[in-house]
Design brief:
It is a single chain. The chain has 175 residues and is mainly alpha-helical. It has one domain: Four Helix Bundle (Hemerythrin (Met), subunit A). It is 57% helix and 3% strand. Strands 1-2 form a two-stranded antiparallel sheet. Helix 3 packs parallel to helix 8. The longest helix is centred in the middle third of the chain and has 23 residues. The protein is globular. The relative contact order is 0.23.
Length: 175
């Protein structure tokens, strides 16, 4: 079975209820197509922030534009690894993802924007390549991440929704 035949929206039983915040932002069912077009849109949008603007925070204690861009890459890496591992039949529970701790330890505010954009792009490209090769059994395989059942399908929808959420925050609060 090809990717196109296997793709459908995830059922609510395929992910933690809080993940619905991201999944609800993805009306598409051609996930790999959505991931590909989002990659190009994201690269173009983030490239518009120069070095000075990339350090901007809209309020005390909020992430900078660099840190949000780094967080997009962290999310892509974590969700992508989870999808890959579960698709391959991983039975061990995969760890949680405490985003604020990750950002605090990241040093992303010292990175150049072009490097952050490339970091996200490389991860997204890698995820697209592996996800488009999955068959229905792999897309539907259930694993455990952050102590909750999840499928690669739900994680892929979550990757698109996660990026949409944070790009929306950038547009609403940082421009």
């Amino acid at each position: 079975m090809r990717y196109d035949d296997a793709m459908r929206r995830p059922e609510p039983t395929e992910y933690h209820p809080e993940f619905e915040n991201y999944i609800s932002l993805v009306p598409e069912t051609d996930l790999v197509g959505a991931m590909s077009s989002q990659l190009e849109e994201t690269r173009a949008f983030l490239s518009g922030f120069d070095a000075e603007r990339a350090g901007y925070r809209y309020a005390e204690g909020k992430w900078s534009i660099r840190e949000i861009t780094g967080h997009l890459a962290d999310g892509e890496r974590v969700f992508g690894y989870r999808a890959f591992a579960i698709a391959r039949g991983e039975t061990a529970s995969l760890p949680g993802f405490e985003e604020n701790s990750y950002i605090a330890a990241s040093g992303y505010d010292l990175w150049a924007m072009p490097d952050l954009i490339e970091h996200f792009s490389a991860l997204r490209t890698s995820n697209i390549l592996i996800l488009r090769a999955l068959d229905e059994a792999a897309w539907s395989r259930v694993g455990i991440a952050n102590e909750y059942p999840v499928t690669p399908r739900a994680l892929a929808f979550g990757m698109v929704g996660h990026a949409r959420h944070h790009l929306s925050v950038l547009r609403e609060r940082y421009l």
